[in-house]
Amino acid sequence: LRTLVIDLDSQGNSTRYLLGADMPEDMPNVAEFFEQSLKFTIRDKGAKEFIVHTQWEGLDVMPSSPLLDELHSKLESRSKILKLSKALDDLDEFDEIVIDTPPALNFYSRSALIAADTCLIPFDCDDFSRQALYGLLEAVDEIREDHNEDLRIEGIVVNQFVARASQPQRIVQELIDEKLPVLDSMLSSSVKIAESHDASQPMIWFAPSHKLTLEFVALYRSEADGAFAISQLWGENPDFYGQFNYDGVALLGHNGIDFLTPSGTMLYAVDGGQVARTGFEPGGFGNFVLLRHPW
Fold first, then answer.
1. pLDDT digits (tens, 9 = 90+) for 125-173
2. pLDDT at residue 159, as a whole number
3. Which residues, 6+ apart, have CB-to-CB distance to 40 below 8 Å?
4. Which residue from 47, 64, 48, 60 is spatially nearest to 8, judged by alpha carbons?
């Protein structure tokens, strides 16, 4: 699986995360890709020439640059909003392209939405984020109507979730009640993510058995495989589950098989299986049905 990250945020957090703080200053970047469209040149460089390999196999990045802020108004006034979308057509060697956008809805984030097939919306559990979410959903509808009719919202990813606090639970439940596409896989609050940023190592390599890493894996699997995806297999993640026990016996790994299914799916318990428990667990299962078998 070959993946490209395009970092359109001038802060460059994704770039530093993947390349490290001591990355060379003269490397190709996404600002140079946009800047050439403002100049007369005999031959523009293709998007591939602005891509940098990371140390992680199969993972490349088109780095950010502070120059993005300076170019913003020039690109907007020259109507270069389709530049990124056209460039992505030439990057067919990648299985997935992830575009990291700035937090503000500006030229770069609109360019990304016009170019994208789907979008994931990160959401922190507070009322300020909720108001921003409503504004973004309206902007997505507008872009879908004017530029990209196939644009689809993959879902809202609840981030920095504290399952034991009442306010996050209330806000998430209110979004669900409003029929917004909140994903069942939620990301917990943890200092480990900041530590992985400092180390410039993605969580899957920095702390593969950490709870937050497992949540990221479950989120990816649910979006990659779609309905009825297996989010966790029997015996997986023994380092994480080894700290727990079941009926006084230490776990050697995940004690079951987790399937992700759409709400309203008809379930059948095979081979003597019985429904042990149902409910909603924020930050864990989400909405769930627990089946037990006498094996």
1. 888 999 999 999 999 999 999 999 999 998 999 998 887 888 988 999 9
2. 92
3. none
4. 64
d(CA 144, CA 285): 32
pLDDT in tens, 191-238: 999 999 999 999 988 998 888 888 888 888 776 655 455 666 777 777
Tell me the CA distances in angstroms from 217 to 143, 211, 231, one per residue in order. Answer: 30, 10, 8
> How many Å apart are CA 113 and CA 99, to the nearest integer?
9
Question: Which residue type sits at 82?
Answer: L
Q: Quick one: how far is CA 138 from the chain centroid?
A: 20
Q: Are 52 and 19 in contact (CB under 8 A)?
A: yes
Provide the Cα torsion 14, 20, 23, 25; round to 10°: 40
